[in-house]
Write a structure and sequence with these properties.
This protein is mostly helical. Helices cover about 80% and strands about 0% of the residues. The two termini are about 30 Å apart.
Length: about 240
Amino acid sequence: MSVVWTQVALAGLWGGLVALERKAFLQAMLSRPLVAATIMGLLLGDVPSGLAVGLLLELFFLGTANLGAALPENDTLAATGTSAAAATLTTATGAGSTPAIWSLAVLLFIGLGRVGRRGDRLLEGYTARLARVALASAEAGNLTRAVRQNLWGMWPHFVLYGALTSLCALAGFFVEPLLQALPPPVVRGLAWAWPAMASVAASLAAQGSHARRAPLYAALGAAAVTVAVVLLLLREGR
């Protein structure tokens, strides 16, 4: 196993940038799971893994509800970390991207959403305190200092989530021996788990829309995604 450090560095850089975009800068939807994960795959040379993980997590987090002022799970960190791990795992295997790799990456790293929520909560106090200081500086006419303090408020997000994403990318290389040691039936099971995950994510997204016929749409969406992915797997297996 040989770690490709450029991939680890690129993963951390993109993970930090979209963390900033999500909270304080631009907010052009680049931090959505589908976009963040797909671009991660492009940067790491594995667009199929990025797109597959992004599609699944976009559907999954569309179905989650934000209640009042409660902090939601950090879907951006889940997307960047999972897609980075899937891409580096693909690189480590030396073979093409497969549904088994996608399933394994999702199972191992989808919990990053909750980790990111804890990180957001830890950083809230710091950023709120700096925002108050920056506002006081602006009211006193010291705009240069106010801008500098706002910039200091952004850096912790970049550093924390960039480092976490880099660790996920690094973990992908270390997971590869475990994947190789799995019996073939388990690997096939991971591959067939992908359509099941996709169908669950599609049904959650439809259910979360609160449409009048949401259960029907959920069932139809799950069935359509399952059939499409199963047909794709059968086609690849020929």
